[in-house]
Design brief:
The chain is α+β, with helices and mostly antiparallel strands. It is built from four helices and eleven strands. An eleven-stranded antiparallel sheet has the order 6-5-4-3-2-1-11-10-9-8-7, covered by helices on one side. The longest helix is centred in the N-terminal third of the chain and has 18 residues, at 3-20. It is globular, with a radius of gyration of 16 Å.
């Protein structure tokens, strides 16, 4: 898998994990309350749509729309001129390059999305590296060497509404990608057609 595709998968997984909640860290009382409030808030949101702006490690800027329907389904549509789209149908994750008219497929269960898009999420204490609960923002830093290697993600939440506002991903090479989301709609009806893959080739999902 290319580094770019790995960053896309990690980006989607990290986002989905905090949209649907379910972390149980061993933290101080204030920080634990903040994290539990965040996860409880998002656990009541099985579907979500919105827009995002992504800033790449070289300063490039892209944007688009996202759609989430758990368990297992997610879609990221990048605006032109980016040719990419990321889709999971609940079993297979596909990355489409519209310009090249190609798909790259991965078994969902072999990606972090298999954990983060399931009905019940359990993230180990070691995944939460730090939590800072401030007046203007709650900052959560996560990483899991078994899943992501040296990569980590920093997520910024509104301390009052517990809405996710922004995150920054640092990959194994130390490159950072930041994403801001806006115009978010929760608990909306999303057609299953949004998560269909166009004739994916047979993959080994053992």
């Amino acid at each position: 898998m290319s580094n770019r595709i790995r960053r896309l998968v990690f980006f989607a997984a990290a986002f989905a994990g905090f949209v649907i909640g379910g972390i149980f860290p061993a933290l101080s009382n204030d920080k634990e309350r903040a994290v539990r409030a965040i996860t409880n808030h998002f656990s009541s949101v099985p579907t979500m749509t919105g827009e995002f702006i992504q800033f790449g490690p070289s300063g490039e800027q892209t944007g688009g729309k996202f759609f989430i329907h758990r368990p297992g389904k997610i879609r990221f549509e990048y605006e032109d001129p980016s040719p990419l789209m990321v889709v999971s149908n609940g079993r297979t994750l596909g990355v489409r390059n519209k310009k090249l008219k190609t798909w790259q497929f991965l078994p969902l269960k072999k990606t972090p999305l298999s954990l983060l898009l399931s009905k019940e999420i359990k993230v180990t204490d070691k995944s939460v590296r730090s939590v800072e609960a401030g007046e203007d923002v709650t900052r959560v830093v996560m990483g899991d060497r078994n899943l992501f290697g040296d990569s980590e993600i920093t997520l910024l939440f509104d301390p009052n509404s517990y809405d996710l506002r922004q995150w920054t991903i640092k990959d194994n090479q130390g490159k950072e990608t930041s994403v801001m989301i806006f115009n978010v709609e929760k608990n909306v009806k999303i057609s299953n057609k949004m998560f269909q893959l166009k004739k994916p080739r047979k993959i080994n999902d053992r």
